[in-house]
Amino acid sequence: MSTAERAFIYAAKPSRVVFGRGSLDHLGEEVQALGAKKALILCTPNQRAQAQVAADLLGSISVGIFDGAQMHVPIESARKAREHARNLGADCIVAIGGGSTIGLGKAIALESTVPIIAVPTTYAGSEMTPIYGITEDKLKKTGRDPRVLPKTVLYDPNLSATLPVRMSVVSGMNAIAHAAEGLYAKDGNPVMSLAAEEGIRALAAGLRGVVAQPKDFAARNDCLYGAWLCGTVLGNVGMALHHKLCHTLGGTFNLPHAETHTIVLPHALAYNSKAAPEAMQRIARAIQAPSAAAGLFDLSKDLGAPTALKDIGFQENDIEVALKVALSNPYLNPEPIVEDSVRELLRNAWEGRRPAV
Ligand code: NAD
Question: In 3D, which of 256, 288, 282 has the Cα closest to residue 269?
């Protein structure tokens, strides 16, 4: 559809982005620019060393490191972090890490007015969204709240250079999934479509470079630039079938987040290929392949990523349960949701079959 035929609303979300090698060095200025004097740094236990670099940079403005960030933000860890921040009188949160650590920062911000400075070290994109997720009684509840959108994001490609190649690849494919679904979002707009296509292009090129040479700075830079764009798309427009299926597979079967996105994406795109031809064209062009669905499957394979759900712990007889959960609430998708077709999609993803389109 040409933009001339299209009506849209676009409300940009306010966040400050500082991008570039060595941008972590600006952390002190950025904390002070927010008027904060007591910054609490969040990380996972295995990113403690990076958090310590941030603490050293902040000197007396740092009130400490909380290294209790965990996958899926369990409510217990959120409560502990909130209490810790309160006891220290923290007036700013510095979240250094991936979506899990930034997610913990969001859990604190949700119950206070404390601003977040995010320093992403993966490509997942949470830093650009007002979306939060907290897991209680094995159920991950997600929501949107402007308070959890980080005020400032420092993108420093040096920090993602330590991300292992396999994690880099699946994290990058996770980001591509945000942009791909953004291209056919009901509430999409031309600005987000430009960001989505460019984000996919940068990530596809960057990931190829990272696989060839994991410490290649230019490739890491491309990936992080793509992650920013794809995360922005996720924060601005609604997602569809692909994200719904991945949420179900992660929540109900505890499948690993980024791997699940990587495997399901080509099949979700195949499902939507007839209903969203312009999006498919733009994805194919961005990855320099003849088609979006098969092209992304081939890209994953070339990058050494998993391509079958059966290889990451999903059993064949889980398909029916997943189907039931995924179809329990209606949601927007370009192609109508039809039970038999979604079953076939899940079966193809389970088997790791290359899409025919
Ligand atoms: P993650 O944050 O769970 O990180 C995985 C592991 O990688 C952690 O142990 C982490 O410490 C380590 N790690 C991260 N960066 C590293 C680096 N540079 N070097 C070495 N180790 C590093 O992984 P993720 O994929 O970034 O985040 C997944 C989570 O984020 C999921 O729970 C997902 O739901 C959430 N998410 C939320 C949004 C949102 O908008 N709210 C968007 C995307 C993802």
Answer: 282
Ligand 1 centroid – CA 103 distance (Å): 9
Nearest CA to ligand 1 atom 29: 99
286, 197 contact by CB (below 8 A): yes
Cβ of 243 closer than 6 Å to ligand 1, yes or no, is no
Convert the pLDDT of each residue in 86-139 to its tens digit: 999 999 999 999 999 999 999 999 999 899 999 999 999 999 999 999 998 877
pLDDT, mean over the chain: 96
Q: How confident is the model at residue 4 (pLDDT cuts 50, 70, 90)?
A: low
Query: Do residues 144 and 88 touch, judged by C-beta distance below 8 A?
Result: no
Q: Is 50 in the pocket of ligand 1 (CB under 6 A)?
A: no
Strands 116-120 and 92-97: parallel
CB contact set of 24 (below 8 Å; sequence gap of 6+): 53, 54, 57, 119, 154, 156, 158, 159
Q: Are residues 26 and 117 in contact, defined by beta-carbon separation less than 8 angstroms?
A: no
- pTM of the model as a whole: 0.97
186 with 332: CB under 8 angstroms? yes
